[in-house]
Specification:
Layout lengths: L1 H14 L9 H8 L5 H4 L3 E5 L5 E5 L5 E4 L8 E7 L3 H12 L4 H14 L9 E9 L6 E11 L5 H4 L12 E3 L7 E4 L4 H4 L3
Parallel strand pairs: 1-3
Antiparallel strand pairs: 1-2, 3-4, 4-5, 5-6, 6-8, 7-8
Length: about 200
């Protein structure tokens, strides 16, 4: 019991927020890497938010993964992890968003830039997105769900044999076929969580 209370106390300490409601750096790092398998978490680079809410590097990395902490300005909890070779593509999207571009504008601009060779999306690079709910007492992330993305630029249903929509829950499919953003989408089913709704 004492050990359990100690874990809760440490977690709450990590979660303490600044005046701008930005969680502590340690908590952001702790939760940002949850989408990765345990052996890869410690070496991942982590982007997050400083006390003023600026998007910054919270920790440099030593392996192939880059993680994004939860955005405190958005509802719900979501973090992401992706292969480091995707960082220029992801950074370009963040840059365009900061300029006020909407999703379609960002899509079209990056489509043209990839076609021209200015921007690259390495084939078979991966993105992992994890959603969940923050337990308001322990501040641990509960009801975790992940989805996996494997980028295969300009691939189609014909070139891959994948359907353009999932045949059933958890089935892989190809999204944005024929474009720079073509990717295999895998969203595992979580029947045990769905039953609790």
């Amino acid at each position: 019991m004492r050990f359990k209370l100690f874990i809760v106390a440490v977690t709450i300490s990590l979660y303490s927020v600044s005046q701008n409601k930005i969680p502590e750096k340690a908590w952001q790092i702790h939760t940002a890497v949850l989408g990765l398998e345990a052996p890869f978490r410690e070496g991942a680079k982590v982007y997050g938010y400083d006390a003023e809410g600026h998007f910054v590097v919270l920790r440099e990395g030593t392996n192939q993964y880059i993680c994004l902490a939860d955005d405190p300005n958005k509802d719900g909890f979501q973090v992401a992890a992706y292969h480091k070779d995707l960082d220029p593509f992801m950074a370009r999207g963040r840059e365009l968003k900061m300029q006020g571009k909407n999703f379609k504008e960002i899509f079209d601009i990056r489509e043209e830039e990839v076609k021209s060779g200015r921007l690259k999306i390495p084939y078979n690079t991966t993105l992992i997105v994890l959603r969940g709910e923050v337990n308001q007492e322990t501040h641990e992330i509960e009801k975790q769900r992940v989805r996996y993305v494997v980028y295969i630029p300009y691939a189609t249903a014909e070139t891959t044999g994948l359907p353009e929509k999932p045949l059933t829950k958890g089935h892989p499919w190809i999204m944005n076929p024929g474009t720079h953003r073509a990717h295999i989408m895998i969203t595992p089913a979580y029947p045990e969580l769905d039953q609790k709704k």
